[in-house]
From TrEMBL:
The chain crosses the membrane at residues 12-30, 36-59, 112-130, 165-188, 237-258. Keywords: Membrane, Transmembrane, Transmembrane helix. The lineage of its organism: Bacteria, Bacillati, Bacillota, Clostridia, Peptostreptococcales. It comes from the Bacteria. This is DUF3100 domain-containing protein. The keyword Membrane applies. The keyword Transmembrane applies. InterPro entries: DUF3100. Pfam families: DUF3100.
Length: 283
């Protein structure tokens, strides 16, 4: 990071102080668990932070945080925070390398299942009118390592950066609830083996994994230990090798499909429609 960027970050000390205080408050609240029929839904401090910061950023006429200067510098601060997280993931993955080898190819290759987000979600995003934002939204499940990659490759102020942050925020807000309900349904209404469902729970997010594993352990109490172990290992592998799948497969594939599908099913913006109408009138 250049010296000018460091000075800009220091200049935004008010925003950093406010966010630090909000973080302390959120950590003090802690994890809130809401019991449901087959497990529980967990609300983590990260969720409180995002909601409180959003309220303060939109608050009028008092503008505590959310100025243009704050927004411009926030993407650089995000990269710093995620870099520390990625370093931790690398250390943990290296320490667990023997367990990764023993897990077998099925557990390792299940990460390729995340490519389904591209084939299912990209066409829908284009039909809704998203442009390059669709690439950021759908190339992965949009967790911290994926944000770090997009921030480094495209920048957080790019359409791809805005797209992946949409996925990250929505995933944080409703991801645990959705996966918890989905796991409950699959465990009781489908013939999938409990251990295969356990592996599917490890999407690369601790909160989502916990929310989806709980119903499985409740439904199959005799296999609770195995379910927890497989889900935890799957989550570790998804975090460790998921970034490589993103770099070498998912992002290039999503870009390729975007170029092919956008001219066919993409919705034109108002500016493009107006330009076409003007050209037709001139003809």
């Amino acid at each position: 990071m250049s010296e000018s960027n460091i000075k800009n970050i220091i200049r935004c000390w008010k925003m950093i102080l406010v966010v630090f205080i909000i973080t302390l408050i959120s950590e003090k609240i802690g994890v809130i668990k809401i019991p449901i029929a087959s497990g529980s839904i967990m609300f983590l401090p990260l969720l409180y932070c995002m909601i409180i910061c959003l309220i303060l950023a939109l608050l009028k006429p008092i503008k505590i945080i959310g100025s243009k200067e704050d927004c411009d510098i926030s993407d650089k601060i995000v990269v710093i925070g995620i870099a520390v997280f990625c370093a931790k993931v690398g250390v943990n993955s290296g320490a667990a390398i023997e367990s990764v080898i023993l897990a077998g190819p099925a557990l390792i290759l299940q990460e390729l299942g995340n490519l389904g987000t591209i084939f299912l979600a990209l066409p829908i995003a284009l039909l809704f009118g998203f442009k390059r934002e669709a690439v950021g939204m759908t190339h992965s499940i949009g967790r911290e390592p994926n944000i770090a990659y997009i921030a480094e490759k495209c920048g957080m102020n790019s359409p791809e950066g805005r797209g992946i942050m949409i996925t990250y925020v929505v995933g944080t807000l409703v991801g645990s609830i959705f996966l918890g309900a989905l796991a409950s349904f699959l465990a009781t209404a489908t013939p999938f083996h409990p251990l295969s469902l356990a592996m599917a729970c490890g999407v690369g997010s601790g909160s989502m994994m916990a929310a989806s594993v709980a119903p499985l352990m409740e439904t199959f109490p005799q296999m609770a230990t195995e379910i927890s172990a497989y889900a935890g290992m799957s989550n570790t592998l998804s975090t460790a090798d998921g970034i490589f799948v993103t770099i070498f497969i998912a992002y290039p594939l999503c870009n390729f499909l975007y170029k092919k599908l956008e001219p066919i099913i993409g919705r034109k913006s108002k500016a493009e429609i107006k330009l076409v109408e003007e050209v037709q009138e001139n003809e």
